[in-house]
């Protein structure tokens, strides 16, 4: 049974998602970005229109992921059809470019260069600037990066995500190719494929290899006939476009002891991993794709398996398909392991039944 869509919920959820993007562009603290994303998810999963709470601000504040400040914003929107803080934020950012932040290669720093130095505010202006060579010579944007922008912008315009089954087939073929390369100890498809999303925008792959083997692995992979174009090439990562469906593939190379942390980081969702990092920070830890570390001493706490990572944070293992930042983390810290996802109760397997990743 699907959760019905309500006009007010969808409208406010859209605004909250856009506000999260604005704060991400402005360099806001991650907790604020995550808070608006969680509130948007909650609104879209409600079984009633948020307007039923319009006359009772206390009931509105009591909803999951909605505190006093968000309650006031929602109440104002329900009364006026506007959210003043959102209108103010939109004036501070290149609003027409914000969705590009979800595309690899268009991070906040890049968008700030485009906006602050060239006044580019939307995708059309960016396309015109690229065609007019206005980015040539801009500090922080080299020739190769400009070429990659042109390709990525064109792919974004096409807007052609790949169905999950097709993406799985491509991912399986990639793993077959990678595992034949000398030095590759292990390879796993992560991202939205592992989360079993219906549509897949790009393919994320984690490769385990010793540092001295990685350059040769990357060189062999990009020489494959399946690779159309190299977008980013570094010591421990590479991004390419495949000839098949022109889909982007992002590969990260890590050490075996970092396998669980890398798998967790690359699987996402973004909101889920941000929430986990917030919990880690509260416990005095630092969490990234390399592991979980004690902040004061830098002592390694966990990282070899996902189970180890969750356990160190005081949580039970959460299967990839439930990592939506929609209450699953809160549930994983409780003895009763039932949560609501998409209107249907889901049980998070305990450590004894979950497959160790």
UniProtKB/TrEMBL annotation:
DNA-directed DNA polymerase X domain segment(s): 6-324
Source organism superkingdom: Bacteria
Major enzyme class: transferase
Family matches, as SUPFAM superfamilies: DNA polymerase beta, N-terminal domain-like (SSF47802), Nucleotidyltransferase (SSF81301)
Keywords of the record: DNA damage, DNA repair, DNA-directed DNA polymerase, Nucleotidyltransferase, Transferase
Catalytic activity from the UniProt record: DNA(n) + a 2'-deoxyribonucleoside 5'-triphosphate = DNA(n+1) + diphosphate
Enzyme Commission number(s) of this protein: 2.7.7.7
Protein's name in the database: DNA-directed DNA polymerase
């Amino acid at each position: 049974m699907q959760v019905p869509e309500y006009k007010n919920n969808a409208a406010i959820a859209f605004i909250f998602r856009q506000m999260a993007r604005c704060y991400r562009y402005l360099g806001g603290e991650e907790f604020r970005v995550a808070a608006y994303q969680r509130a948007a998810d909650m609104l879209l999963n409600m079984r009633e229109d948020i307007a039923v709470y319009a006359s009772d601000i206390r009931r509105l504040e009591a909803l999951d992921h909605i505190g006093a400040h968000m309650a006031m914003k929602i109440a104002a929107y329900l009364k006026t059809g506007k959210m003043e803080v959102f209108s103010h934020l939109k004036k501070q950012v290149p609003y027409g470019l914000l969705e590009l932040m979800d595309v690899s290669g268009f991070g906040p720093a890049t968008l700030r260069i485009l906006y602050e130095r060239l006044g580019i505010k939307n995708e059309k202006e960016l396309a015109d600037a690229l065609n007019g060579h206005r980015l040539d010579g801009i500090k922080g944007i080299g020739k190769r990066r400009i070429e990659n922008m042109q390709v990525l912008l064109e792919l974004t315009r096409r807007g052609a995500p790949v169905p999950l089954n097709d993406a799985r087939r491509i991912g399986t073929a990639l793993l077959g190719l990678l595992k034949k390369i000398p030095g590759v100890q292990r390879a796993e498809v992560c991202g939205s494929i592992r989360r079993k999303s219906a549509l897949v925008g790009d393919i994320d792959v984690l490769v385990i290899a010793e540092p001295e083997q990685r350059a040769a692995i990357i060189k062999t992979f990009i020489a494959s006939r399946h690779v159309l174009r190299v977008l980013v090439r570094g010591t421990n990562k590479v991004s390419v476009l495949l000839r098949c469906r022109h889909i982007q593939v992002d590969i990260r190379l890590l050490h075996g002891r970092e396998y669980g942390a890398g798998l967790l980081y690359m699987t996402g969702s973004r909101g889920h991993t941000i929430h986990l990092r917030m919990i880690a920070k509260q416990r005095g830890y630092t969490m990234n794709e390399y592991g979980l570390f004690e902040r004061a001493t830098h002592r390694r706490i966990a990282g070899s398996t996902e189970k180890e990572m969750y356990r160190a944070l005081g949580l039970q293992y959460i299967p990839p398909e439930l990592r939506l930042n929609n209450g699953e983390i809160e549930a994983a810290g409780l003895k009763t392991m039932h949560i609501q996802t998409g209107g249907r109760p889901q049980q998070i397997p305990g450590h004894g039944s979950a497959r160790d990743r």
